[in-house]
Structures are given as structure tokens and as C-alpha cells.
Amino acid sequence: MSGKFVALTPELHAYVAEHRSERDPVLAGLAQETARLGRAAAMQVSPEQGAFLSLLVRAIGARRALEVGTFTGYGAVSIARGLPDDGRLLCCDVSEEWSAIARRAFERAGVAGRVELRVAPALETLRSLPAGDTFDFAFVDADKTSYRAYHEEILPRLRVDGLIVFDNVLWSGAVVDPSDRTSDTVALRELNDFLPTDPRVECVMIPLADGLTIARKRGPNEGARR
Predict the structure, then answer these.
(1) How far apart are alpha carbons 143 and 162 in whole angstroms?
(2) pLDDT per residue over 168-221, tens digit each?
(3) Residue 224 maps to a domain
């Protein structure tokens, strides 16, 4: 282990968040609106995460994207911004209240024509998709105990070299606390241990906000590199 990392102080985190290209007044307004929800607002992706999602979607030339766990729409707007005009984003959430906020944000951001938001359990939505439906990019930020199930449902529908991005994989540091045996922490810890061993993907975890893991789907003739 090289030990080459920088521990983020609040000041350094603010510096990181400030040095991004995205400056979207719609997203800024959405963040303010979401903040009024109180404690639930902590579920919103951070501004630097949003900018990173947009960059990833553009970088891989994604045309079809999926989001599991839309909340009030910050991540969805960020993803939709990275899609071409004829791109499509399927969003899954279980809250009518939060989805209503997200739909208003889609309209204000001018991306409503690219986004379909289904209010239903995400596993039901995924399992109801036609067999031929494929995606280039997926972002998972929902109930942590279902992350492994989402992985198994999404991966067969992902094109080769497509990406699945999982949020909250550090879980405020709880994943390295052996005394924390809560269901969410255990589920995330098990996913984090599983993904590097899954021969169908290659992955990397990055300490952005509460931690992101990016998994790329390997090709059928691509052996795992150990």
C-alpha cells in the first residue's frame, strides 16, 4: 500500500467542490428546494458527484441510462444533461412526493423529454423491461440492502463497456467499523467485497463524497485481470 492519499478537511472538500465545470442554476435551485426537506436532504448527491456523473455519461457516449433511486432529481438532471438530445434516461423511485419535485426539476432543466420516471419498486420495474432493452450507464443510489440485487438485474441489460455506478459505498466510514452490523452497512460491505471478485466486471472505488464504485462490464472474451 502506497498510502498516497489526502484526508479531506471541510476546507479542502469545499475547494474540491468549487473546482468543477458545472454551474447549473437549475441544480442550485433544486439543492435549495431539497434542503427544505430537512434530514432527508442528505440523500441528495453532492454537486461534485453530479458533475462527475455528467462527465462519465458524456465520456462513454451513453445514449440510454438508468437511475435507481431518483429522490428529488439532482442526479437524474446531471445524467440527462450528459445524454444527447435523443438520449433516454429511465428513473426508478418509490416516493410520489419526491418524484413530483424531480419532475418539476426535469421541466426547468429542459430534460423532461429525455426522462421517464416510474414510481414503483425498482426491482419490479427492472424485471418488467423487455428482454432486448439495454443500457449504457446505470447509477444506483437507493436502498442499500438491495444493491446486490440491482447489480444482478442491471448487468445483463448493460452493454459491454457500459458502467454501473454505486453510491454510498463508504457509508460515512461505517464499512470499516467491525462493530457496525446494521443491515445497510453489512449489505454495502458485502457488495464492496463481492464486486472486485466478479469476473463479469472490473471496478474501482473512489472516495468522492460518500464513496462511489464504478464497475465496467467486461466483454465475453475478456478474461479477468488479476
Answers:
(1) 22
(2) 999 999 999 999 999 999 999 999 999 999 999 999 999 999 999 999 999 998
(3) no
Q: Mind spelling out the 3-state secondary structure of 53-83?
A: HHHHHHHCCCCEEEEECCCCCHHHHHHHHHC
Q: Which helix (H) or strand (E) holds 92?
A: strand 88-93
* Dihedral angle computed from the Cα positions of residues 140, 141, 144 and 145, in that order, rounded to the nearest 10 degrees: -40
Supply the range of the domain harboring residue 106: 10-217
Q: Evaluate whether 103 touches 75 at the Cβ level (below 8 Å).
A: no
**Hey, CA dihedral for 48, 84, 94, 201, is it positive or negative?**
negative
Which residues does the chain have with pLDDT short of 50? 226
Is the entire prediction scored with pTM above 0.90? yes
Domain assignment present for residue 222? The answer is no
Asked if residue 210 belongs to a domain, the reply is yes
Cα–Cα distance between 226 and 218 in angstroms, integer? 14
